[in-house]
Write a structure and sequence with these properties.
single chain; 11 strands; 29% helix; alpha/beta
């Protein structure tokens, strides 16, 4: 078992997307710099512990983000129409921001848990390959296995709160073939992860109805509340972080409130 612990930074919520993105970018640079400096052989202790691992969690102020496939494709007029339309919804006008993550346009806002794991997939702690672990070779997790592993983590976290969810042919976590409760969009740079997941606890679903979320015109977003489950977002956050740490091979979590 690794002696490394996952460091969880809980951001003040709700916060602007740009605030979280700036913090995330700082941790990504830290891990990339560490990779650059690791030209010398690692000691047995360093090899066992792996690189530091971080995860940011927050609820965002209303924001639509596009994925890297859509960068530059949304006109200024389309952005204006979307922000104007969203001004009539519960939490007010949403920003529109182009992101580097995978996937297509989605919504983030109050009542939704967002988590951004920042880890080096080629230098994770060594851990037993049990049922809760992401499939890997030694200290390495392949990108597709990482996304599959995030889906499993979300499914187990929701199960702790009496919500049965599953995979479908589409990325993310679903209640059934029509209703999506959690989205995944990640970015990798030299195997360092950024961006991550969102889980709908009790957001205003009108924001989702204003777009074709994740490019799936015939599907709909749902939430814990829409399913009749009263889930505290802080409790779901704890469940997700615990499951994530176990899956990545970390021996516990240290939480820091920013």
């Amino acid at each position: 078992m690794s002696s490394s612990r996952l460091v969880h930074f809980r951001l003040p919520s709700p916060c602007r997307y740009a605030y979280a993105a700036d913090i995330q970018d700082g941790f990504v640079r830290m891990l990339l710099d560490r990779k650059q400096e690791q030209l010398r052989p690692q000691s047995p202790t360093e090899a066992q512990s792996g690189a530091p691992g971080f995860v940011l969690t927050a609820q965002f102020l209303p924001v639509y983000t596009t994925g890297r496939r859509e960068r530059g494709l949304l006109s200024e007029q389309a952005k204006l129409e979307l922000t104007t339309k969203s001004s009539n919804f519960k939490h007010g006008q949403a920003e529109v921001i182009e992101a580097l993550r995978g996937g297509q346009m989605t919504y983030h806002g109050p009542g939704q848990l967002v988590a951004y794991p920042i880890v080096d997939l080629h230098n994770l702690p060594r851990a037993d390959h049990g049922a809760d672990s992401m499939r890997r070779s030694g200290t390495i997790v392949r990108p597709r296995c990482y996304v599959d592993g995030l889906e499993s983590v979300i499914i187990r976290a929701l199960a702790r709160h009496n919500i049965t969810a599953r995979r479908t042919e589409h990325t993310g976590v679903w209640i059934d073939n029509e209703r999506k409760i959690s989205s995944i969009g990640v970015h990798l740079r030299r195997n360092v992860t950024s961006h991550g997941i969102s889980i709908n606890v009790d957001p205003d679903l009108d924001y989702f109805r204003a777009i074709t979320a994740c490019g799936l015109a015939d599907k709909q977003a749902t939430s814990c509340a829409a399913l009749g489950q009263a889930v505290e977002i802080d409790e779901l956050e704890t469940s997700f972080i615990d499951e994530l740490a176990t899956s990545l091979g970390y021996n516990g979590v240290d939480t820091i409130h920013l």
